[in-house]
Amino acid sequence: MEMTLRSEIEKGIAGMGMNFSEFGEWSGINRGIFSAILNSNPPKPISLNQLERIGRALGREDGWMFEVYINECFYDGRPNRRRVEPFLLRCAALGRNECIEEVLSRLLEDLRQLDTIFDIAEALYASGSIKESVVFYRCIVQNEKYHQSERLAISHYRLFRAALGEDNEQNLRAAIEFEPFCEKLPDHHRLDGLMKLVNVYFSLDKYAEAEKYSIALNKFSSIIYKNQAERLGADSREPTLAGRYPLVVYYGYGLMCMQNIRIQQNDFEEAERYIQGYEDLSWFIGLDEEGLKEVEKFKFYALANRLNLELLIGNENILATCISFMKDNPNELLQFTFSILKSANTYKYDADILFEEFSGSIANYLTQQFHHDKSIISYNLYCGTCYQAALYFLERMDYEKMFDYILKGMEVVVKIVNKEMFMNNVSLFEEYRSQASEAHKIHYKKLVGGLSK
Predict the structure, then answer these.
(1) Which of 209, 212, 196 is closest to 250 using CA atoms?
(2) How crowded is residue 453: how many other Cβ atoms within 10 Å of its Cβ?
(3) Within 13 Å, how many C-alpha atoms sit on residue 446's CB side?
């Protein structure tokens, strides 16, 4: 005999030794409603709230009879949004993916139901249930027929954001899949999407792509700014986009990323020109309080990046100034350590003051900051800094410290699947393997095995 929702409810009530009236009072469900649910012909559909109250009254676990409740969502064979939507949201909260897949399969018999599916995805995303929203956005991506659909573009954008994490290869795949849809997004999402694309490609050392999207970010934010300035006038406050940041951030960030790309290309003169472009953005019309704070941040970034430029052109006389700056601004420690060590390695000068001022070993400081800033870029910067530290100690034939830094970097390289940096570390370790301790060799073997899995 097929199990039905109502037969299971009746069985549960009988098992408690109650009649319908007593159980209605016990569960808190109105007697008339309860009678209509069980005795009417045809029976009144059960709401999700009523099902869960009945389940709790029967002592059942959350999610009881959900697989059977699906039929209530399609009463008379048609989806009822008032039951479908809360049911899918609850299934997502409880991790009942098999129920979600079954409901989506039925909904997709009519592609007009993509509206409902998209709204559920957006509700989950807005509530912070990013992981739970993915199955719904994927459903949109797989079934939306109109390629120019804004709904399709937003779904790709959400999936892109949700996919970003520690794995560089996964980040690259996510970026490539998202790219064709970025221009189809609403303005605020498009700005955020461009910023994320810049970060992904820069972190992967793909500077041509990073430059492409940095230029696009600066150009698009400039167009929006020009349109707003013409429409609102100089006395108006900057309108707030629905994006994560004020408009001035996107404009300045595009310039700052171009500066970083020029540094990677050793075009330091052009990098300085970009610094000049964002060091004073107080001319932005109608900056509100948040916008003014961001303008001050860019002034700070300009100061820090000029110091970095001096290091990268080999000005060792600025070393003491940089150490003092790092003490006053500990959040800059990772970037400045990288720049100091790279400069010292390139121009062959002594940077021991860096380790002396930070208690003889900067490794703990690097690790501490790294664990507080797990952005895509900081992962790769941490690995690069450890590698530069290893080269620095190699030059001084301090093999123990060299291997310490190689292995510290490799711990993260393996985690983020940075194969290029992995090979750099492996090559360095193997070249000087004869100088490694047994402990170093054991740790190294374990890390090499970790990436090959």
Answers:
(1) 196
(2) 5
(3) 9
Domain boundary, last residue among 261, 285, 313: 313
Going by C-alpha positions, the residue among 178, 156, 169, 250 that lies closest to residue 204 is 169
Selected residue with higher pLDDT from 173 and 331: 173
**Looking at the domain assignment, is residue 309 inside a domain?**
yes
Burial level of 261, CB count in 10 A (0-12/13-18/19+)?
buried
What SS3 class is residue 423?
helix
Closest-CA residue to 114 (of 137, 134, 130, 98): 137
Instruction: Judge if 364 and 425 occupy the same domain.
Output: yes
Please state the three-class secondary structure of 179-197 as a single string: HHHHHHCCHHHHHHHHHHH
Number of structural domains found in the chain: 2
Residue 4's SS3 state is coil
Domain carrying residue 449: 331-453
- DSSP per residue over 117-166, as a string? HHHHHHHHHHTT-HHHHHHHHHHHHHH---TT-HHHHHHHHHHHHHH-SS
Q: Which two tokens stand for residue 233?
A: 């006038």
In angstroms, the CA 156 to CA 169 distance is 18
Q: How far apart are CA 215 and CA 235, in angstroms?
A: 29
**Residue 450 falls within a domain, yes or no?**
yes
Structure tokens at 168: 């560089």
Confidence check: pLDDT of 242 > 60:
no
Tokens of 304: 């820090």
Closest CA to 322 of 333, 313, 314: 333
Identify whether 216 is part of a domain. Answer: yes
CA distances from 91 to 11, 52, 54, 104, 132 (A): 24, 12, 17, 12, 9
Position 155 scores a pLDDT of 98
Phi-psi region for residue 59, left (φ > 0), alpha (ψ -120 to 50) or beta? left
Torsion of CA 281, 370, 170, 116, to 10 degrees: -70
**pLDDT interval class at 214 (50, 70, 90):** very high
End residue of a domain, out of 287, 313, 339: 313
Structure-block tokens of residue 54:
């009945």
400 lies in some domain = yes
Lowest mean pLDDT among 142-146, 305-309, 362-366: 362-366
**Is the preceding peptide bond at 239 cis, omega within 30 degrees of 0?**
no
What whole-number distance in Å separates Cα of residue 354 and Cα of residue 135?
49
CB 378 within 8 A of CB 334: yes
For residue 14, what pLDDT is reported? Answer: 86
